[in-house]
Amino acid sequence: MSKNNKFKRYFILFISLFILLNIGILVFNKTYLYKGLQSTYLKGRTGPGIYDSIIFPIRVAHASNLPEKWETHIPTKELSQEAKNLLNETNTTSFLIVENGEIIHESYYGDHDVYTKSNSFSMAKSFIALMIGVAIDRKEIHGFDDLINDYLPFVLENSEKVTIRDLLGMSSGLKWSESGINPFSDNAEAYYTSDLVSMVKNLKFIDQPGEAFEYKSGNSQILGFILEKATGMHPAAYFEKYIWSEIGAENDLLWSLDHVDGVEKTFCCAYATTRDYAKIGQLILNQGTWNGRLVIESATLNEIITAYNENTSHYGLHFWIYEHSKHPSVYLRGILGQYIIVVPSLNVVMVRTGHKRKGKYSTTDAQSDVSSTDKNDYKQHHPLDLFDYFSILNEVLNK
User: Fold this and answer.
1) CA-CA distance, 70 to 169, in Å (whole number)?
2) Rounded to an integer, what distance in angstroms lies between the CA atom of residue 255 and that of residue 120?
3) What are the residue ranges of helices labelled H in 183-273?
4) Which of 190, 169, 193 is nearest to 180 (CA)?
5) CA distance 99 to 335
6) Long-range CB contacts (< 8 A, 24+ apart) of 248-251?
7) CATH number of the domain at 52-397, please?
8) Where are the alpha helices (DSSP H) in the chain?
9) SS3 state of residue 99
10) Domain boundaries of the chain, sorted by first residue
């Protein structure tokens, strides 16, 4: 066979496969793959990034009319080379420590600086929890144990017994494929789709609510629709009015939408500066108040950051719980190592942003952790880099 004939044969095969692939995408309504491909592989990336606000339409939660600057300890405390190596290991872009309401350490890496807005990823889930709490305080939602069908603008299959608490506790029984790397997962579709409403309308619940913890981002997206139906406001606007402006945010927060004037991706995708993220942590540390202003009732907040039930001690209502033996903490977490960490016993808030995080703590790690006198059970469910930040915190506080 001549080279020209061989080339022609391969070319025809390639075109045929290309046509079949596109037919499959259209038949199975997976057109979000085009947006995903354009936003990742064609730009030299393999997945979502921390600066993706430029590739999606946004809704803005505007900065406070009375922005409040952080007090800064002078001089701020420097990190050891060992600490810097830990941060560089996971491509950290910012690391900040607030103690007693003032910044004691702040560092930025690469092109990231004090004004750079970074993707929250799943930290935004905790923002939704706070807004649900505010809506309860304002009597727009009766309580965490209300049935979701009392508020959803549409009915999902087998949703009759599901409560708002079940969604917040990641124990609703929702059918949802959770993955940060599978392009055919529900996560990928929700991230890149231009029609979240249609996607969510096709969801269903397949297990009894309240029986098992299963982290599924679809729960958070449903909560976004509940919030909007109950309050009559878009989540970004509600966040601006009742939280963002109340804590003296210095910069706008951006929230990705599925399409222009569409709906917020409430399972992820808010963008803010590191200093403003820290104010969310300080609000939690302050038990729901900011400079004397009540933002969320302390009883409501405590319910949100308390374990969903005795079987999920690591997770509250869209907040992670770290049962450290000396310094129990609550924190917000995103898939690429976004953290807002609140340590009440030390009066500390930490914020870390970056491009990746380490894997989860495992039984293998427990066996090798010979330096610890604890049973290490409290470390289950948490990424290994979380412990790096506590190690760095210990170094900074003891300088």
Assistant:
1) 33
2) 10
3) 186-192, 196-201, 218-231, 235-239
4) 190
5) 26
6) 248/64, 248/66, 248/67, 248/68, 248/279, 248/290, 248/291, 249/61, 249/63, 249/64, 249/67, 249/276, 249/279, 250/63, 250/64, 250/67, 250/68, 250/69, 250/275, 250/276, 251/63, 251/115, 251/117, 251/276
7) 3.40.710.10
8) 3-27, 32-39, 81-89, 123-137, 164-168, 186-192, 196-201, 218-231, 235-239, 274-285, 298-304, 363-368, 384-397
9) strand
10) 3-43, 52-397
Question: In angstroms, what CA-CA distances link 382 with 3, 68, 218, 313, 331?
Answer: 56, 33, 21, 12, 11
CB 320 within 8 A of CB 333: yes
pTM of the predicted protein model: 0.89
pLDDT digits (tens, 9 = 90+) for 58-103: 999 999 999 999 999 888 999 999 999 999 999 999 999 999 999 9
Only one residue has tokens 């790690």, namely 365
Q: Would you state the structure tokens that stand for residue 245, as one six-digit string?
A: 């402006």
Secondary structure letter of residue 377 according to DSSP: G
